[in-house]
Model the fold of this input.
Amino acid sequence: MIDIENAYKKYAKDIYKYVFLNVGGNKDIADDLSSEVFVQAVRSKNTFDINKGNIRMWLIGISRNLLKKFYSTNKATIDLEKVEHSLISGNDPETNADLIFMLNKLEKHEAELIILKYIQGFSIEEISKIMKISVSNTKVKLHRCMQKLKQL
Amino acid sequence: MHAETKTTMKDLEKALQNIDIKPDNEWYSSTLERIINESSKKQNNLFINLLLMTKVRLAFIAIFGITVFAVIGIVLGISLLNRKSGEIQFVALSDQEKRELFQNIVANNAQGVLNSQNKVPSTAAANAASSYLATESDSSIAADPAISRIGLVPFEVSDKILVSEYTNESGPVTCTYSGYSDSRLNDIYSNTTSTSASYQDAEGNYYNKYENTYQGTLIAANYSKGTNSSNESYDYRGGQFAVYSKYEYEPLQLDASAPELREMTVSGEGVDGSAGSPSDMNIDDYIDMYFGTSVNVLGKVSENGKDYYVIESENYNYCTDTWVTQSVTATPNFWEGEGYPESQTTTVDSNNRTVLRQWIDASNYQVHKSEDYLQTVAPENLISRMTYTNFEVEPTAENINEYFTFDLVTDVRDIGIYQSNVDTTPIEYNPEGDANRTFSLFAQNNVALVSSSNPDLKLNYVYYTDDRPSEVSTLIYIPEYYKERDFFPSGEIGDVLFEAENTISDSYKIMAVQSDATPKANFTLSTVNGELNAEDNMYASFSIYETAVDDMAIVNSTIYTPTVSRSISDMTLDFGGESVAAKVYNYETNNTIYYSVDPSISVRDVAIPEPGADVCESEDGCIVSGHIVVFERNNSKYAFTLNKGVTYTVPFDLELFNSYQFSFAEPSSAGFESLKNDYVDYLNTFKDAAVTEPAVLE
Done:
């Protein structure tokens, strides 16, 4: 059985980043949801199956479910102007904030593809498993999403 | 990343990869607290439940528990007494202990031994591909020591020359090696004998040697020396010549005061343009690089009186996977509803992996044995087994010379010095200069732009290519000399290796997006006026091709998804009084996203769609309309679309087209200059807003 505390130590930042970007950079929402991911992980750790993906993918799966639930009950409540800059780091935080703003302009599933691939570093194969779409479809959609992002 | 900044896709990818979010300390502590509380809640509940039980139940459980424990104890005792050699005994290691174990393995094994754990055949193409795959799947490192790998690691390594000799024997599973079905290749790669030696001196210089023989024929040899600013290597594949190359990069900055955890800073990239050189790597990065992120310590095993750690990791299925085996040389005919070949989706199978099990000598952390299995560990799934003989040699000048000097009797071809081609110098944002350059390319090639009399519709992106490298060549670095038959041994073995190199090279090209239609120029007019609102803005996106480019190639490279309905109509369009005969391609595609949710990731209180449910995330539904208009003018082929927002495509609307009152802006005309001036003004709004400007055109 997996040790959620260890998983937390290893993937806390990854999960926070994923949730943060998927809620448009809203710190309050990201704080609550990403914390809830690990609580849910404790509750459902018996369901983890290494044959279906690694721990990080499993945690992302929980995050996705929570995000879906959140969006199903909080339609259009994300304030795109409320990107929390203080948490954005990297070599060039200003450009990063700009990019996050751009990602917010995409459809949610489009932004998610880009986040999973380029920001979370998942492989195409892993993304296809996470999003339950074929590898070729993932490649095509990712390419189109990047084209759209580039045009913004 | 505004379109008008002329960002390349690679720049955009890099910028995205640079995004980092750090939760604050309060979140870390409160989340950990919640995890601990939630974990203890379960235990508490058990305890409370126990207290609430009746005495009878409690007594029953107590007796039952004692019986169970007694049985377990007896069984355990018997099993310990009868413990067979070779049985893996679980050992509990903390994260820190595991980390130290992996660190010790890296520090005490020759580089070639660590690389040999990646079983992808050591071919140029495979190396290029595996380095791509490494970035794709976060798995292990590329196999070829000839490709620059900095030997410096952020912790102490052995002060001896580490030498290892190992043999590879094949198991019941026959690999097809990514599309090369000739069984002789499997025979060669599965039955080799190798020698590897490596040494890192006190200054951080790194020496590496690797030789691989099959039936007495040397089929691969690499000798390399890395310093803090270069990597020299000899590459030999048993043919009539070897190749010498040198790769130079920005000097590493080492903090010698803390050798046990030296911070490294490296700039520049590998010769293949991939992330070949580590950048700001720490110990964990090295562990991931050599063992993959899935590595786990299974336990300890005793064999012939010696103890071994057994570690296991999952890897990309290099052996029978077929998704890289197809060489797609043309875009599928999306227009006719065709998609990518179905076989490319075979990797969706969750069991499509190999499992590497390694035995590490507990006394010196050297690899003793490794076995590679297809999908799961079982005798019938064994792909290959490697057994190692390791020894250490004093690093005298004589020994260093003996082990690491390339002295094979063969011609050596010097292919020169590679230098890092990545310019990390910040590029000054120069809207006027950029615009002048781009517009002059339109003028030189006599290509007209399009302007609109509608004051809301302004040029906000323009690009002309004159030197765009092919996507394949930037993705895969395959040295030209691998295409020479003489680089490989003479005779049948050489024939197989030569053919395999080139076959595999071709097969990996699928990784690059192939297109039969690459525009020579693009420009976009839009109603964007500083406010990027994807819902309301109108976009007129033009691409310009050579007239020889087929309409269908343009259409297919634009829509990228199989159509479900389509129509073509001829139309005369008015561009400022000039009539143009155009073909309008209208189509519909299905943008369904399938959320067949895995029951294993079910979470309480969360609404989950039924497995296999079709979920249309677009409010407009799954079927999406689109159009492309194509016409020829002055030795160029123009293709354009008119879209609302960037996420919605619509059928062609002639009324909308006419409302924009488009006209051609010929080079050197007043309209052309006016477009340029407006464009510079537009770019300057970003300069004033201090938007960081990535450079490079695409």
